Structure formats: structure tokens, C-alpha cells
């Protein structure tokens, strides 16, 4: 949600990919792709954003904390990032999502959005469940 220099962003993508592969992920057994090259993520985020009310997003603690660190000038990208996360999860009809405790509320938002969408348009998205990581 913070602007990055294009060259730094490209290098960060390569570094993250190298780190994932270094962890032992076998690209012959899994799909590894750059999310920004899949337009359906942003398209679904737009649709889900039209179903999500602003007061709900303003109550998320991550918004409050990051906005405070940005001198009360939080961006729209920061506010709507949890909706993009919900789109990332729901696009693939995920049923289980590994999350840390700091992301539980964002997953709950994804669950609420899925339930709201299903109630309005018929059963389409499974309601994802959290798999809490233990560090």
C-alpha cells in the first residue's frame, strides 16, 4: 500500500520468489505465479468492495494502527487492502487459510463477505476457515 520505486519492486518480486523456492517449494508440484498478472484479483476486489461497507473497514485494527503511523492520512489502498485479501482467498474458493493472529480479523471479513455474497446471489463461495499458525 506504499508507493515503491519500480526497480525496487521488481527486485523484491524476484527476491521473494527466490526465497519461496529456497524454502523447498517444488514448482513442478505447485503453481507459483505473480498475483498482479492475474486481473481477476483486482476485478473481484472491485465487486466485493461494492458489497463491503466503509464503517466495517474503518474498525479494523490494522487500518487504525497504520493510519496513525501515516499522520492520520491513510490511503484508500490501505483501507481497501483487506477486501483485496478477501478477493485473493475467495477467487480460488479456498476453504482453509493459514493465518497469523494478526490476520484473523481480515479472514473474518472474508468470511462475512462470502456469506453476504452467497445470501445475495446464491451459494457460490465457500466460507473459508482459519488455520492459525503457531510461531
TrEMBL record:
Enzyme Commission designation: 6.1.1.2
GO molecular function: ATP binding; tryptophan-tRNA ligase activity
Enzyme class: ligase
Record-linked Gene3D superfamilies: HUPs
Membrane spanning residue stretches: none
GO cellular component: mitochondrial matrix
SUPFAM superfamilies documented for this protein: Nucleotidylyl transferase
Record's keyword terms, sorted: Aminoacyl-tRNA synthetase, ATP-binding, Ligase, Nucleotide-binding, Protein biosynthesis
Biological process (GO), any one: mitochondrial tryptophanyl-tRNA aminoacylation
One family name in Pfam for this protein: tRNA-synt_1b
Source species, domain of life: Eukaryota
InterPro entries: aa-tRNA-synth_Ic, Rossmann-like_a/b/a_fold, Trp-tRNA-ligase, Trp-tRNA_synthetase
Family: Belongs to the class-I aminoacyl-tRNA synthetase family.
Protein name stated in the entry: tryptophan--tRNA ligase
Annotated organism of origin: Daphoenositta chrysoptera (varied sittella)
Encoding gene per record: Wars2
